[in-house]
Design brief:
The protein is of the alpha/beta class. It is 24% helix and 26% strand. It folds into 2 domains: 174 residues, Sandwich (Immunoglobulin-like); 338 residues, Alpha-Beta Barrel (TIM Barrel). Strands 1-3-10-5-6 form a 5-stranded antiparallel β-sheet, with helices on one face. It has a 5-stranded mixed β-sheet with strand order 2-12-11-4-9, with no helix packed on it.
Length: 564
């Protein structure tokens, strides 16, 4: 028979070890909140080597179901990252399954078997490894009627014999999570999608693929997206190029520039339809110094040429003239689209102390045109901010305490190496509770936004090489999973990940704490945080999944007490 158990989403179900944690019997959620949990299964009595089965779920709640597949972690040692996790298989890929698919009978010589019709994944339990199903209540954040609901999950053999049954009680509170105020962008790499699927950039087929990827980002909390007006000058070798990704058509004629924003409008409209609220313009100058212009294709006469690039000085008259004309026309376009104040602008990515002069010189050329706009850049050093060249620093979490207390309009970001001690990160080798902990830290320090550089980046460092994340989740980097959150399915769909779901839960924890703040005040919300984690910093995190589960249960208790 199959041993089937329900676990909290933070408890890893690794193939080689029995899940370490209490089984789950009850869930509490707000009436517009997604809630994920897991069904772990294995043949533990050695009654068989393997058993094929199908499942049926009985509930009045909207339920989404996924089979969790593993990826190989061949490298987990990261300097300063604790604890060190052994190499092995890591459960991360979420393969969608129908909740209660139609069943079909199939003849096999001397017997009749039952299969789920139209399913790409058949379920099998083994005697020598644990596997899991990921189950999500209300994945699309509908409004659910208050009350107590039952969820019954039954496992059947292909001969319709019941093999296991698990049950969960879900208590839906009569209160909504407040809307997400945190702005969150995870850089969207259009060139990677086009390369992976072999389609023409910004063709109808491409936009169909892109739309699914954006939808999967939105349901997990992403509300801002990178807009490649011009090829983003990111992770590009000096004097090298990434594939041209340019939404805005520029033309130079009779001594002046004109711009066609129709393709940008189509891109933005698709993203709006998916639920994106804010947009992020590609950087105006090159990464790590703002010394050159990004690659920009301009039509002159009958030809399209690369008019600007590495050889173009950032503050050169020709590029500044082009850029000022462009920003002026862009602002008119944004106003017509109702996007005033909803576009984040960048000067140059990750400026350090040695770049203060070049960054400042570049910023001064267009500062008047960006007055009153959101304008910020990722940085690990306070130099550019303290020099007055950036009003909205996006601080690396490893060094964010250099900025805290100095800046009222502070964002945060992290990269793969920011996993020392108990820091939060989304790497495969970082525990789920530490992944989710970021939301609490962002709430506690009133951080306005969060940026991460890889939603779907399957290139290696400096965009060299192209990797299959199913087989090599490091993708040429030191950290497994640093460069992506979704897996590219062969059908043109994005496959979500466990890490993505856990991170999204962390964003919803910000909303949950905001609800508690609305009911009892910010001091009360912070008191619950400090009760479980002490005086919080970005270097701290929960030592165990139980520690975080106890914290979030305490938040619900405080909310329920305030509602009664």
């Amino acid at each position: 028979m199959i041993d089937a158990r329900l676990y909290h989403s933070l408890i890893p179900v690794n193939p080689e070890t029995e899940p370490d944690g209490e089984t789950l019997t009850k869930a509490v959620l707000c009436n517009n909140q997604p809630y994920s949990f897991q069904l772990a299964y294995k043949i533990t009595d050695f009654s068989a080597d393997n058993i094929d089965f199908y499942i049926r779920i009985e509930s009045e709640l909207p339920i989404s179901l996924y089979h969790v597949n593993c990826v190989p972690m061949l490298h987990t040692v990261y300097s300063g990252c604790k604890p060190q996790v052994p190499i092995g298989l890591c459960p991360d890929i979420l393969i969608p399954k129908q909740t209660n698919p139609r069943l079909k009978k199939v003849a096999n010589w001397d017997n009749i078997r039952t299969f789920e019709d139209g399913e790409r994944i058949a379920l099998n339990a083994f005697c020598d490894s644990w596997q899991s199903l990921w189950i999500c209540i209300n994945e699309n954040s509908q409004i659910i009627k208050e009350g107590n609901y039952g969820i019954k999950i039954k496992l059947y053999s292909l001969f319709d014999v019941e093999l296991a049954c698990t049950e969960l009680e879900a208590e839906v509170l009569g209160v909504k999570l407040p809307r997400q105020r945190l702005m969150y962008t995870n850089w969207f790499h259009n060139d990677c999608l086009a390369d992976y699927y072999g389609v023409e950039l910004f063709s109808e087929k491409y936009f169909t693929i892109m739309e699914d990827y954006v939808k999967k980002a939105v349901i997990n909390g992403m509300n801002m997206i990178l807009v490649p007006a011009f090829t983003p000058p990111l992770d590009t070798p000096l004097n090298g190029e990434r594939r041209t990704v340019q939404l805005v058509k520029a033309e130079y004629r009779n001594g002046s520039y004109s711009f066609d924003f129709s393709l940008m409008k189509k891109y933005i409209d698709i993203c709006k339809r998916c639920g994106i609220k804010y947009f992020e313009h590609s950087h105006f100058f090159t990464q790590w110094g703002a010394r050159s212009a990004p690659k920009i294709i301009v039509k002159t006469g009958d030809k399209e040429i690369k008019m600007f690039g590495w050889k173009t000085k950032a503050t050169g008259k020709k590029y500044v003239t082009f850029l000022r004309r462009y920003i002026t026309e862009l602002k008119r376009f944004l106003a017509a689209e109702g996007l005033n104040g909803k576009m984040l602008f960048h000067i140059s990515d990750e400026p350090g102390k040695e770049h203060i002069e070049s960054y400042g010189a570049a910023k001064k050329e267009i500062a008047d045109l960006l007055e009153g706009e959101m304008c910020g850049d990722a940085m690990f050093d306070t130099g550019v901010y303290e020099a007055g060249y950036c009003d909205m620093p996006i601080a690396m979490t490893a060094f964010i305490h250099r900025f805290i207390g100095k800046c009222e309009n502070l964002w945060a970001y992290y990269i793969g190496s920011n996993c020392q001690n108990s820091m939060s990160n989304r790497l495969l080798q970082v525990s789920r509770e530490r992944n989710r902990m970021l939301g609490v830290q962002l709430y506690y320090y009133k951080i306005k936004g969060f940026l991460q550089w890889g939603y779907n980046n399957y290139y290696g460092q400096l965009s060299q090489g192209f990797y299959e994340p199913y087989f090599n989740p490091c993708c040429g980097w030191s950290g497994c999973g640093s460069s992506y959150m979704v897996y590219p399915d062969r059908t043109g769909k994005a496959l979500q990940s466990v890490r993505q779901k856990v991170f999204g839960d962390g964003l919803n924890d910000i909303r949950l704490l905001s609800l508690l703040e609305k009911l009892k005040g910010r001091k009360a919300a912070n008191a619950v945080i400090e009760k479980h984690f002490g005086k919080l910093t970005f270097n701290d995190g929960p030592d165990t999944a139980k520690m975080y589960i106890d914290f979030i249960n305490d938040v619900y208790i405080n909310i329920k007490n305030s509602l009664n």
